[in-house]
Amino acid sequence: MGQRKASKDGDRKVGRRALLIGGTVAATGSALLARDELARLWWRVPGVEKPRKEGEVDYGGARWVAASDANWRRADRPDDYGIDMVVIHVTQGGFDSAVRAFQNPSHGAASHYIVRRDGHIAQMIRELDVAYHAGNRDYNERSVGIEHAGFVDRPQDFTDEMYEASARLTARICARYGIPVDREHIIGHVEVPGTDHTDPGPHWDWDRYLRLVREARTAPA
């Protein structure tokens, strides 16, 4: 979250592709393309929703706590938007206050996950959906956002349990989408173009974190 909450990402309800592809594809005779696109877009037709399992999580170590529908938008990632990045945030507040903020429809922002000081992880948005966490539409569409409860100027908030739990989570995300474990693909909110946020701040130990992610990535399941 950083210094202030992120704004919505300029929500595009149907993503990059228009629903007009049907006529265009039919005209060009590209039947395979039409079938592929319609498979992704059928659920975006008004009144149709893609099937979801209530309370389902993408990471087995997380507990589901739903964010407000106003703070994210439905997608079918990585089919409609490829995922190639993890964005690290710090809440600038406590775990419970962050959960309440992400459940508030007027907040305008939420991350996929929040990690508490004791290592507890809440998932608030499915990874296949676009969370409004980065303040940049392109980065929102291509990334998974992970908040860490605490303050950027309090190094004591970044506990061993938090680092280890977050690293295991990031390792699973990277494995799932083939994301390289490096600083080009695991970034801080401060590094998102156009942002005025400062998180995770100068006390976040990137060398330690990436080492833990690599260790978790290669550890036996």
State the end-to-end CA separation. Answer: 31 Å
Percent helix: 25-40%
From the spread of the alpha carbons, the general shape counts as globular
Kindly name the structural category. Answer: alpha/beta
Q: Which architecture would the CATH scheme give at its second level?
A: 3-Layer(aba) Sandwich
CATH class: Alpha Beta
- What fold name goes in the CATH topology slot? Lysozyme-like
CATH level-four homologous superfamily name: Peptidoglycan recognition protein-like
Largest sheet: 6 strands, mixed
EC number: 3.5.1.28
GO molecular function: N-acetylmuramoyl-L-alanine amidase activity
Protein name: N-acetylmuramoyl-L-alanine amidase
Keywords: Cell wall biogenesis/degradation, Hydrolase
Give a structural overview.
- The protein is an alpha/beta fold.
- It has one domain: 3-Layer(aba) Sandwich (Lysozyme-like).
- 29% of the residues lie in helices and 12% in strands.
- It has six helices and eight strands; from the N terminus they run ααβββαβββαβαβα.
- The strands form two sheets. The protein has a six-stranded mixed sheet with strand order 1-5-4-7-3-8, with helices on both faces. The chain has a two-stranded antiparallel sheet with strand order 2-6.
- It is globular and about 40 Å long.
- The N terminus is likely disordered.
- It holds the Pfam family Amidase_2.
- InterPro entries: Amidase/PGRP_sf (IPR036505), Amidase_domain (IPR002502), NAMLAA_amidase_2 (IPR051206).
- Keywords: Cell wall biogenesis/degradation, Hydrolase.
- This is N-acetylmuramoyl-L-alanine amidase.
- Its EC number is 3.5.1.28.
